[in-house]
Amino acid sequence: MVMNQTPAYRDGNIYIPVLSFTDGAGEAFIEALGGEGAGPVDVPLGAKSAVVELFRFTEHADGADVVIAKADAALVLVRFLDQATMTRIKEVFRLAAAEAFLPKTVAMFRNEKESEFKISCTYCGQKLWVRDRDAGRRGNCPQCRKTFFVPTQKSYITSYLMLTEEVPVVQVTAGDVSARNAIAALAERVVSMEEGSKSSTMRIELPPEETGS
Ligand SMILES: [Zn+2]
Predict the structure, then answer these.
(1) Mean pLDDT in residue range 102-121
(2) Is 0.85 topped by the overall pTM?
(3) Fewer beta carbons within 10 Å, N or C terminal of the chain?
(4) CATH class of 8-113+153-198
């Protein structure tokens, strides 16, 4: 595990990179926080600020390890879930997951009033738009004709990344307060983790090592 040399948290700021995989999604997320382009943008949270910066992994996953190593928490922003994109998401998420003490959130980005999302057919790879309202129903791939159950976006991403309850999956919508709420909740976990580790340090005592043998 790579340890943070000087966590931003200690200066009163919580550094949260937004890891984005689809063009435009990360930019809209930063904009919803009152920032521009890739940021960084300051999100005041009571006594502290979250400093949020966008990193795009829209072509490859290179450099994600460097970004994650200096983070206090990570927001994985997903939009399209086609095969090529999911491969990049999985690669970056694997690096983040290796940091056991790094709070993480997966945020599903939607444009306002959007009620469908993009996946790939698991049989032939055909990109498909599926509607939220068809979740749980049986559908046919128009390309290979194979039958599959339409997932929810959340169940699709949860099973693909094998997420546990420690990693919340939330929805964020362009232009409303959901982006800010996602950042605030994530920053809250950084603070409570830091406070928890201060107040509940326990001592482990091992029996004396046996010599000889
Ligand atoms: Zn197919």
Answers:
(1) 96
(2) yes
(3) C
(4) alpha beta
